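Task: complex structure prediction.
Instruction: return structure tokens for all chains below.
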Amino acid sequence: MKKLLSGNEAVARGIYEAGVKFASAYPGTPSTEILENVVQYKNDVHCEWAPNEKVAVESAIGASMGGVRSVAAMKHVGLNVAADPLFSMAYIGSNGGIVIITADEPSMHSSQNEQDNRHYARAAKIPCIEPSDSQEAKDFIISAFEISEKFDTPVLFRMTTRICHSKSIVEFGKRKEKKSKGFTRDFQKYVILPANARKLHLKVEERLKKLEEYGYDCPLNKIEVNDTKIGIITSCIAYQYAKEIFPNASILKLGLSFPMPKKLIKKFANKVETLYVIEELEPFVEEQIKAMGIKVIGKDKLPITYEFNTNVIEESLLNKKSYKEIKVENLPPRPPVLCPGCPHRAVFYILSKLNVHVTGDIGCYTLGALPPFLALHTCVCMGASIGSAYGIERAMEQDPTGKVVAVIGDSTFVHSGITELINIVYNKGISTVCIMDNSITAMTGHQDHPGTGKTLMGKKTHKLDLVKLVESCGIKKENIRPVSAFNTKELMKVFKEELAKSEPSVIITQGPCIFIEPKDKKWKLFEVKAEKCKVACSACLKVGCPAIYNDENGKAVIDPMFCLGCTVCAQVCPFDAIIEVER
Amino acid sequence: MKKDKINVLICGVGGQGILLASEILSEVFIKAGYDVKKSEIHGMSQRGGSVESHVRAGKKVHSPLIKKGEADFILAFESMEGLRYLEYLSSEGKLIRNTQKIIPLTVTIGNAEYPDNPEKIAKDNGIDTVSINAIKIAKDLGSDKVVNIILLGVLAQYLGDLSAPLRIDRKIWDDVIVDWMNVKKLSPKIMEINKKAFERGYNSTA
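Output:
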């Protein structure tokens, strides 16, 4: 069977075909759809959302030790969270094959940096495999499990946004069932006490040499001999762009990009006159080739930042621009916005009225930083809102009471906010923390987490009680304030009360993400009564809803296609001009 | 050089059904026997942000992204959104645009101005432009959700006019759309609206 699949869908199919029995992930763009697609094979593969990437990798490690093939998937920055177990596992090696998938994001479409995670493979001394389209995503992940078992190593499987989210045609295979090998106690392998680790490190170095030899003629690395005037060494999506710009060149495509197959590189380099290395982001392959004393053209011409495409390669390497430049001046930007009906809207509206520093976190609510709210002033990484709020308060010379609020989503709080809250209580901070509980991991496309009471495989499970959890962290009962996320008056009151206290408090704003409401929900609809909208005061525009805009006469209008009747605009209208109507 | 690929760039606003349109278009190309690649960016912008999707078909397609200067069609779901991508059109390329205006938040809060006449801007830049009021047709048919199917109908009309081997016959479209509606288990009433929507686009003299 052949189907058009995204890289994420294809890799999920490959996980199934490889006989994998355990798969775990924390959602993160562009990796999220991997587990969302593995779940269609839930009768054969146990799959789950972990509270964070470290837990996902550690569970996968356990499953590998327990003798089955296992996988953990995450976005590039997720691997930072999971780096600790990864580096230990690099010494321990595998029992059942174990693959860690990293989805890197050149151009940062939905990320805070564009780190190149091939560096992790090198730092942890484990092999790195990179597919260049969906078919390879499926085929190579099967090879990754074989390599993991053959060489007793975890394997890093590196995808990028354009591999994850572009679709191409994939031919399906059959699942090869793998029996569990079971867990056999092995002190020297599984307990990395210093005495054992010293021996294991020697094995790791041996393993790298063997892998380098393996790379010479393994099917993942491929030479396409063509015109030898130009030779190109490339990998991942860059291969596809190179094929279009240099259709006649000879190409060495690295599917196993670390450890680099030096002998193969030398053989290829000797055949061609001019050698290019075309790779996105860091000069990872290029620097290693240069260290071999081979002359290559790479990052001296190609950019080190952002995604490539065929235009970038043509302009950088051929100095050619084969299109007519048309720049339409002053087009209004259309950046991402909080959706109509979003439960975060009223919270940021209120925060924008309060004179407080707001430390933010990773989620849809990071958009609170943009106009019209301008009500989120820091964003670092998952969980950092609470630690940053605490740190800013410690740095203040005057009394910090009422000056700082941390905002964090429910899923992010579970991911890595809990320890930060414990720290505030333990070290006697006074921060006001707002958990914006929309009952889902929203930004990545609405995945369950321990606070939703449902597993990835659709089973009901214990629902984490945020109020009880926060209380057991040491927040006083009277300082824990659940409040409707849609009620502006109530929100203002609760924020003012908690900010006035010189002890830590947690406000939990409650309102579901619009995307988890039942499909047949009858949404309310609001309308601006033109005769009541007298002075065109623009108060309703300040709630930053894409469903409201000014018409030619400067009066507010609500687009019924977008309005979901959340009532926030109606609450802020001083003339009661916004009223509910029949949909 | 004889053309051997079709490149379609679809753009608009999150929530308009762009990804579904690009899925259907890809299936049509596959049914027509082509290699197909398609690419878009997920995440962040669920509703209200700019969305773009690239669909490429040919005997063999490498890059999932269209090269600037090589798009045969831009299918713009919103009045001005196509203007962001004019550089992608080939010299014979065509901009098909829905005249529906969706005011971006940046305009609402006074940080930018919506262009007066997007069609004129495109034409002044020498772009072959056809415009259709798909939202009006959709509302007439009884569902504002079928804008994407109407616009695919318009595209289908032009793909049917191409010379062989790149021409796509109407029957393939009908089959793919019926398959999709069956998979989605749409009600008979909604199915009928979708069929009419496609027909209206296909027969528009836009």
